[in-house]
Amino acid sequence: MTYYIVRLKFTSPVRFGADNSGIGIENAESFVHSDTLFSALCNAWAKYGILSNKEFAECGEKIIISSASYFVYNIGATYFMPKPLVSSAWIAGLTGRKKERLEKVIKKANFITSDMYKHWLDPKPPSHVFPDNSTRLAEKLDYRSITRNSIVAKHAQDRLTGASNLFYESHYEFKSAPTCGLYFFVGLKDESFKEKFDHGIKALSQIGVGGERSFGFGRFEVGNGNGVLCDIETDGSNLGFLFESLWDIFPEALLR
Fold first, then answer.
1. pLDDT confidence band for 225 (50 / 70 / 90)
2. Pairing assessment for the beta strands 220-222 and 179-188 based on DSSP bridges
3. What is the pLDDT of residues 115-142, one digit of tens each?
4. Do 40 and 209 contact (CB within 8 A), yes or no?
5. Hey, where are the domains in the chain?
6. Phi, psi torsion values for 29, nearest 5 degrees
7. Alpha-carbon distance 29 to 15, whole Å?
8. Does the pLDDT of residue 97 top 80, yes or no?
9. Strand, helix or coil at 173?
C-alpha cells in the first residue's frame, strides 16, 4: 500500500450535510466524510467514462480514502486531525485551575493539530506542542476561523397548489487568505490506478462535491506543483508516520 495526501482548495461555497439534522436543512458541516468523497469520486468516474465496469468492480479493493480534515498554509503548514476519544495524557498530568481552563479549551475542539495528535499520549510533550496558556491554546486550535458559515432563506412553491414554503439552508465558505481547505489521505494498493484517480479527482473539481452543485457549490482546485497525489513521505507534510500507524491500528479514526 502506498499512501498519498490530496489537498482541496475550494473556490466556491460548500454544503456538506450535518450528522445531526436540525429543523429542515439548517445544519451543515464544513468538512466531508470518506463515504461522501468516495461516492462523489465514483460519480465523476462514471460520468466521464474514466473506469470500465471491471475497474469499478475492483476499485474497492485497490483504493482506500479517509475522511477530509482542515489544512492551513500561513507562515507554515498546519494540518488538523480528528480529536481522539481518549483523554490527552498531558491534560491528565495537570492539576488545579490550570487543568480546568486548558481542558475546557480542548473539550470544545473536534479537531487538533497533527503535532498534538503525535504527542496525544505523551505525558511530557515538547513545550511548543501544547501551549500552557488557554488563550494561546485556543488560537492554535482555531480551525473554525478559516470558514464562514451562512444561513440563507429560500422559497419553494408547490406546483399544484401554488402554496409557498419558506425554509433556511446553511453553507460554508473557505477564506482565501491564508491558503486553506480540506485534505484527505489516499491509499493505493495498485500503482496503475494512480492515473485513474488523478483523472477522477480533476473531473470532480469541475462537478463539485457535496450538496447544491447545481448552484455551483463544491468546486475546488486540486494539487500543487507536486501533482494531485502527493506522497506523504516526501511532500513535507510530516504526516506519513501518523497515517501508517493510525491506519493499521485505528482505521475508524480516519473514516468517521
1. very low
2. unpaired
3. 898 889 888 888 889 998 889 999 999 9
4. yes
5. 2-255
6. -115, 160
7. 7
8. yes
9. strand
